[in-house]
Amino acid sequence: MSDAKSVVQSAAKTFAVLRAFSAERTELTITDVAGLAALDRGTAFRLINTLVALGYLAAVPGSRRFRLTLKCLDLGYSALAGGGLAGMAAPLLRELVPGTADAASLGMLEGPDVVYVARAQTEMGRRDLDRRVGSRTGAYAAALGHVLLAWRPEQEARAVLERGERVKLSERTLTDMDALLDRLRAVRARGYAVSDGENAYGLRTVAAPVLDQSGLPRAGVSLTVRSERMALDGFIQTALPELRRVTGALAIALGQIEAAPERRAG
Known about the structure:
Layout: H1 9-19, E1 28-29, H2 30-36, H3 41-54, E2 57-59, E3 65-68, H4 77-94, E4 103-110, E5 113-121, E6 136-138, H5 143-150, H6 154-163, H7 177-190, E7 193-196, E8 203-211, E9 217-226, H8 232-265
Antiparallel strand pairs: 1-3, 2-3, 4-5, 4-9, 5-6, 7-8, 8-9
Helix pairs in contact: 2-3, 4-8, 5-7
């Protein structure tokens, strides 16, 4: 929680004015903004006129109302878009380690493999569990791979699985095609994937997809914990809300980035 003495109230009020607008409230009068932002009318008047002068608000012709401009999309857009999903995910992953999980990853599908594109982790104590950015693992045997395949058409998922070698990494690893396709259906129905020692002994993982606007998985996020640290049910209960928060935030950011060029062109 920030110290109230260190908060610039004028900046907070400016953002309160911008947040007064929404998809349901696209055009507002000064009185409307004052009420929604909990400001007196004089302050709302000055802030609105400042934002108009800066290009973030525009007067609606023939009325006393104002609207947001497309310049608002530039607030952080360049910095976020420049780093792509990996850049956006990195600070979110770091926030979850070590409090929620021993490792947090963002992965993308490349051929039959998951490629780790962002990662935060503690010292796992085993070199074979150290998944650095750029490392790969077979999609068939990883919770990340399951969420990257489960939201794709089944024939496409099958084709991806058939392209790679499927070997048992532990006694729990599924390698049979029919069993894997059944697993993908279950993952999609549940909304997330779970791995308990299937990809590596002693690790428990929960993963969820980052879906684009068409409902296809652009990436996946996973949280992993050592089995001695937490029971599986307890880990799912703890990790799943955080996992959904991160994937939801990344999906929203992805949608804004993809839509921004179209809005600007329009």
